[in-house]
Amino acid sequence: MKILGPDLEFPHPNTADAHGLLAIGGDLSVERLMLAYRSGIFPWYSDGDPICWWSPDPRMVFDLKSQKPMKISKSLRQSRRNKRYHIKENTCFEDVMRACMNAKRGLHEGTWINEEMITAYTALHKLGMAKSIEVFENDRLVGGLYGIDLKTQKNFCGESMFSHKTDASKIALWYLVEKLAKDDYNLIDAQLYNDHLASLGAMEIDRKVFLSYL
Protein backbone atom coordinates (compact mmCIF):
# COMPACT_ATOMS: atom_id res chain seq x y z
CA MET A 1 0.00 0.00 0.00
CA LYS A 2 1.44 3.36 -1.06
CA ILE A 3 1.34 6.60 0.92
CA LEU A 4 0.60 9.37 -1.56
CA GLY A 5 2.45 12.66 -1.55
CA PRO A 6 1.87 15.84 -3.56
CA ASP A 7 2.80 14.22 -6.88
CA LEU A 8 -0.13 13.39 -9.13
CA GLU A 9 0.30 9.63 -9.38
CA PHE A 10 -1.10 6.28 -8.26
CA PRO A 11 0.45 2.82 -8.07
CA HIS A 12 -0.90 0.25 -10.51
CA PRO A 13 -4.27 -1.19 -9.38
CA ASN A 14 -2.78 -4.69 -9.41
CA THR A 15 -0.76 -3.74 -6.33
CA ALA A 16 -3.90 -3.29 -4.19
CA ASP A 17 -4.23 -5.56 -1.16
CA ALA A 18 -6.74 -8.39 -0.88
CA HIS A 19 -9.49 -5.97 0.15
CA GLY A 20 -8.80 -3.64 -2.76
CA LEU A 21 -6.99 -0.90 -0.79
CA LEU A 22 -4.36 0.64 -3.05
CA ALA A 23 -3.10 3.86 -1.46
CA ILE A 24 -3.68 6.39 1.33
CA GLY A 25 -3.35 10.16 1.32
CA GLY A 26 -3.22 12.72 -1.43
CA ASP A 27 -6.15 15.03 -2.00
CA LEU A 28 -9.50 15.29 -3.77
CA SER A 29 -8.43 17.75 -6.46
CA VAL A 30 -10.18 17.57 -9.81
CA GLU A 31 -6.97 16.38 -11.44
CA ARG A 32 -6.33 13.58 -8.95
CA LEU A 33 -9.94 12.38 -8.98
CA MET A 34 -10.04 12.17 -12.76
CA LEU A 35 -6.70 10.36 -12.88
CA ALA A 36 -8.09 7.92 -10.32
CA TYR A 37 -11.32 7.15 -12.17
CA ARG A 38 -9.56 6.84 -15.51
CA SER A 39 -7.21 4.35 -13.84
CA GLY A 40 -9.94 2.22 -12.25
CA ILE A 41 -9.48 3.70 -8.77
CA PHE A 42 -11.95 5.47 -6.47
CA PRO A 43 -11.83 7.16 -3.02
CA TRP A 44 -13.75 5.75 -0.07
CA TYR A 45 -13.04 6.63 3.55
CA SER A 46 -14.70 7.61 6.82
CA ASP A 47 -15.02 11.24 7.79
CA GLY A 48 -11.91 12.33 9.73
CA ASP A 49 -9.73 9.53 8.37
CA PRO A 50 -7.05 9.83 5.67
CA ILE A 51 -8.30 9.51 2.09
CA CYS A 52 -8.22 5.86 1.04
CA TRP A 53 -8.04 4.82 -2.63
CA TRP A 54 -9.46 1.49 -3.80
CA SER A 55 -9.38 -0.80 -6.79
CA PRO A 56 -11.16 -4.02 -5.75
CA ASP A 57 -10.97 -7.40 -7.44
CA PRO A 58 -13.52 -8.50 -8.55
CA ARG A 59 -15.38 -5.38 -9.68
CA MET A 60 -19.17 -4.98 -9.71
CA VAL A 61 -20.57 -3.65 -13.01
CA PHE A 62 -23.66 -3.37 -15.18
CA ASP A 63 -22.74 -4.68 -18.62
CA LEU A 64 -24.39 -2.31 -21.08
CA LYS A 65 -23.49 -4.51 -24.04
CA SER A 66 -25.56 -7.44 -22.77
CA GLN A 67 -29.10 -8.04 -24.01
CA LYS A 68 -30.53 -7.27 -20.57
CA PRO A 69 -28.07 -5.00 -18.70
CA MET A 70 -30.61 -4.45 -15.90
CA LYS A 71 -33.29 -6.73 -14.47
CA ILE A 72 -36.63 -4.94 -14.78
CA SER A 73 -39.38 -6.46 -12.67
CA LYS A 74 -43.07 -6.23 -13.48
CA SER A 75 -43.62 -4.07 -10.40
CA LEU A 76 -40.86 -1.69 -11.47
CA ARG A 77 -42.45 -1.31 -14.90
CA GLN A 78 -45.74 -0.51 -13.20
CA SER A 79 -44.06 2.07 -10.95
CA ARG A 80 -42.46 3.87 -13.88
CA ARG A 81 -45.79 3.89 -15.70
CA ASN A 82 -48.09 4.76 -12.81
CA LYS A 83 -46.18 6.74 -10.17
CA ARG A 84 -46.19 10.01 -12.12
CA TYR A 85 -42.48 10.48 -11.56
CA HIS A 86 -40.59 12.67 -13.97
CA ILE A 87 -36.86 12.45 -14.59
CA LYS A 88 -34.30 15.21 -15.05
CA GLU A 89 -30.54 15.36 -15.53
CA ASN A 90 -28.03 17.62 -13.78
CA THR A 91 -30.51 20.14 -12.37
CA CYS A 92 -29.66 19.71 -8.65
CA PHE A 93 -26.42 17.74 -8.39
CA GLU A 94 -25.49 18.83 -4.87
CA ASP A 95 -29.00 18.07 -3.60
CA VAL A 96 -28.64 14.54 -4.94
CA MET A 97 -25.28 14.10 -3.20
CA ARG A 98 -26.69 15.36 0.10
CA ALA A 99 -29.68 13.06 -0.16
CA CYS A 100 -27.29 10.16 -0.76
CA MET A 101 -25.19 11.26 2.22
CA ASN A 102 -28.22 11.33 4.52
CA ALA A 103 -29.77 8.06 3.36
CA LYS A 104 -29.64 5.15 5.78
CA ARG A 105 -27.63 2.39 4.14
CA GLY A 106 -25.48 -0.62 4.78
CA LEU A 107 -21.72 -0.90 4.50
CA HIS A 108 -20.21 0.15 1.12
CA GLU A 109 -23.42 1.92 0.05
CA GLY A 110 -22.83 5.61 0.50
CA THR A 111 -22.43 6.39 4.22
CA TRP A 112 -18.88 7.64 3.52
CA ILE A 113 -20.05 10.82 1.75
CA ASN A 114 -18.94 13.94 3.64
CA GLU A 115 -18.60 17.68 3.06
CA GLU A 116 -15.12 17.27 1.57
CA MET A 117 -16.50 14.82 -0.98
CA ILE A 118 -19.46 17.07 -1.79
CA THR A 119 -17.14 20.01 -2.48
CA ALA A 120 -14.84 17.91 -4.67
CA TYR A 121 -17.56 16.23 -6.72
CA THR A 122 -19.52 19.45 -7.14
CA ALA A 123 -16.36 20.91 -8.69
CA LEU A 124 -16.27 17.93 -11.06
CA HIS A 125 -19.94 18.51 -11.88
CA LYS A 126 -19.32 22.15 -12.78
CA LEU A 127 -16.72 20.92 -15.28
CA GLY A 128 -19.18 18.45 -16.79
CA MET A 129 -17.39 15.37 -15.42
CA ALA A 130 -19.81 14.39 -12.65
CA LYS A 131 -23.47 13.85 -13.53
CA SER A 132 -26.73 13.30 -11.71
CA ILE A 133 -30.05 11.68 -12.61
CA GLU A 134 -32.97 13.05 -10.61
CA VAL A 135 -36.47 11.70 -10.06
CA PHE A 136 -39.19 14.15 -9.09
CA GLU A 137 -42.72 13.72 -7.84
CA ASN A 138 -44.37 17.03 -8.71
CA ASP A 139 -41.59 19.46 -7.70
CA ARG A 140 -40.10 17.29 -4.95
CA LEU A 141 -36.84 15.40 -5.43
CA VAL A 142 -37.67 11.82 -4.38
CA GLY A 143 -34.82 9.77 -5.84
CA GLY A 144 -31.69 9.85 -7.89
CA LEU A 145 -28.07 8.92 -8.38
CA TYR A 146 -24.75 10.50 -9.29
CA GLY A 147 -21.42 9.42 -10.72
CA ILE A 148 -18.45 10.19 -12.95
CA ASP A 149 -18.93 10.18 -16.71
CA LEU A 150 -15.87 8.84 -18.55
CA LYS A 151 -17.02 9.81 -22.02
CA THR A 152 -13.83 8.83 -23.84
CA GLN A 153 -13.78 5.36 -22.31
CA LYS A 154 -17.58 5.00 -22.66
CA ASN A 155 -17.90 4.06 -19.00
CA PHE A 156 -19.96 5.61 -16.20
CA CYS A 157 -18.69 5.30 -12.63
CA GLY A 158 -21.72 5.08 -10.38
CA GLU A 159 -21.15 6.50 -6.90
CA SER A 160 -24.38 6.42 -4.91
CA MET A 161 -28.15 6.58 -5.18
CA PHE A 162 -31.08 7.29 -2.89
CA SER A 163 -34.84 6.87 -2.78
CA HIS A 164 -37.51 8.65 -0.75
CA LYS A 165 -40.38 7.04 -2.65
CA THR A 166 -41.04 3.52 -3.91
CA ASP A 167 -38.69 2.52 -6.74
CA ALA A 168 -37.43 6.08 -7.32
CA SER A 169 -33.73 5.16 -7.28
CA LYS A 170 -34.34 2.09 -9.44
CA ILE A 171 -36.14 4.25 -11.99
CA ALA A 172 -33.18 6.65 -12.03
CA LEU A 173 -30.84 3.71 -12.66
CA TRP A 174 -33.12 2.30 -15.38
CA TYR A 175 -33.17 5.69 -17.09
CA LEU A 176 -29.35 5.86 -16.93
CA VAL A 177 -28.95 2.32 -18.29
CA GLU A 178 -31.20 3.13 -21.25
CA LYS A 179 -29.48 6.44 -21.93
CA LEU A 180 -25.94 5.03 -21.80
CA ALA A 181 -26.79 1.93 -23.83
CA LYS A 182 -28.24 4.18 -26.52
CA ASP A 183 -24.99 6.19 -26.47
CA ASP A 184 -22.95 2.98 -26.94
CA TYR A 185 -21.37 2.95 -23.47
CA ASN A 186 -19.75 -0.25 -22.21
CA LEU A 187 -20.23 -0.37 -18.45
CA ILE A 188 -21.68 1.25 -15.38
CA ASP A 189 -19.10 0.70 -12.65
CA ALA A 190 -20.89 -0.23 -9.43
CA GLN A 191 -17.60 -0.77 -7.57
CA LEU A 192 -18.36 -3.31 -4.82
CA TYR A 193 -20.76 -6.23 -4.58
CA ASN A 194 -24.00 -5.92 -2.67
CA ASP A 195 -27.18 -7.96 -2.86
CA HIS A 196 -29.33 -5.02 -3.99
CA LEU A 197 -27.17 -4.32 -7.04
CA ALA A 198 -27.01 -8.01 -7.86
CA SER A 199 -30.81 -8.20 -7.77
CA LEU A 200 -30.88 -5.42 -10.38
CA GLY A 201 -28.55 -7.25 -12.74
CA ALA A 202 -25.06 -6.09 -11.76
CA MET A 203 -22.35 -8.74 -11.92
CA GLU A 204 -18.76 -9.19 -10.82
CA ILE A 205 -15.89 -9.24 -13.30
CA ASP A 206 -12.14 -9.62 -12.80
CA ARG A 207 -10.27 -6.38 -12.19
CA LYS A 208 -8.05 -7.18 -15.19
CA VAL A 209 -11.13 -7.30 -17.43
CA PHE A 210 -12.52 -4.11 -15.91
CA LEU A 211 -9.23 -2.25 -16.47
CA SER A 212 -9.22 -3.34 -20.10
CA TYR A 213 -12.28 -1.12 -20.67
CA LEU A 214 -10.26 1.90 -19.49
From TrEMBL:
Its main location: cytoplasm. It is found in: Cytoplasm. Its EC number is 2.3.2.6. Gene3D superfamilies: Leucyl/phenylalanyl-tRNA-protein transferase, C-terminal domain, Leucyl/phenylalanyl-tRNA-protein transferase, N-terminal domain. Functions in the N-end rule pathway of protein degradation where it conjugates Leu, Phe and, less efficiently, Met from aminoacyl-tRNAs to the N-termini of proteins containing an N-terminal arginine or lysine. One of its GO terms (cellular component) is cytoplasm. The gene is aat. GO terms for molecular function: leucyl-tRNA--protein transferase activity. This is Leucyl/phenylalanyl-tRNA--protein transferase. It comes from Nonlabens agnitus. InterPro entries: Acyl_CoA_acyltransferase, Leu/Phe-tRNA_Trfase, Leu/Phe-tRNA_Trfase_C, Leu/Phe-tRNA_Trfase_N.
